[in-house]
# Entry
Amino acid sequence: MGVEKDVKEETNLDALLSYWLCVFMLPNKQVDQIRPGVFKVASMMAQGKRFSLAVPVLASIYHGLREITSSPNPSKCGTAFPIHYVYGWLSRYYDSYFLSASTKFTCGARMVRLGGEKKAKHFSSQEACDLLKNITPLTLSLLALTKPKQGIVTDHGKHSDSWNDYIISLRSSYLTLRRGNEHIVEPYSPYRFARQFRFCQDIPGKLREELSTGTLEAIYQLWESCTRLNTRAEFMISSHSSEGLATKEYAEWWEKSSSSFYKYKPACAKPDSSPVAPKGKNLIKISITKSKLASEVTQPLSKPKEKEVTKAVTKEAAVVVAADKK
# Structure
């Protein structure tokens, strides 16, 4: 190729990163092509510059899943997105994949052990439904960062990279992705899957607008809003516990939100599924935060209103436990 010897290694790395970005990280429907727009980023990566890829990758996943669910013929919609991350997430939370034997890789990347053919386990409809419903509060917190004691964390922009990333992931925002001339926007509402972060806030809210695309300028503004730090916002971080925390209102919201899913899957229904209230006067102390996350990404986050809720373990508490296990 006529590449000079002193830049040959960097040039090869540029080519590898370009391929990696187009095929593994951010594929589109032309999966066999390397998009010209990635070469500059790949070259900067090869020189050691760091890029945040979590937001565009998640936007690609959300967009791909949206295309599948909205297609009249999902099996032939032809969407392309990095579904291997979805496989990794499923394997992390559910016993849904066979892991390959230990490999020579020592980086600790769990996804490496999910590669190859026929790794997915086979489930009947009943078994798949049972798998989705049997997740426990202990496994829900796999991705959570916890502290020895429950407390408040303030976004002052001076935390470690892991805590800064975590703070960004806790905020509602819009995920953005530019893929050639295609501008993609997807709503991100983390409190809708708050259990995996050990949140114990009340009923989830909604972003005010349902955006799906925008101008390049709008995409940039949404990106800045999503990744902004030093907002002085405060978050309640719980301590590690094997018990799930939920309010009665959250349990009722969960029942309402998930009813349509189980309504059309009668195989999931189990006889005599009504919870039995435990006896006694044990107390559960639940810390909740009303609005730790912003309802608008364009405005700074407001400080949360905290309150302590103490209630006896009655039938409602049993419903909470049952809902948390679904």
Notes: Residues 264-326 have pLDDT under 50 and may be disordered.
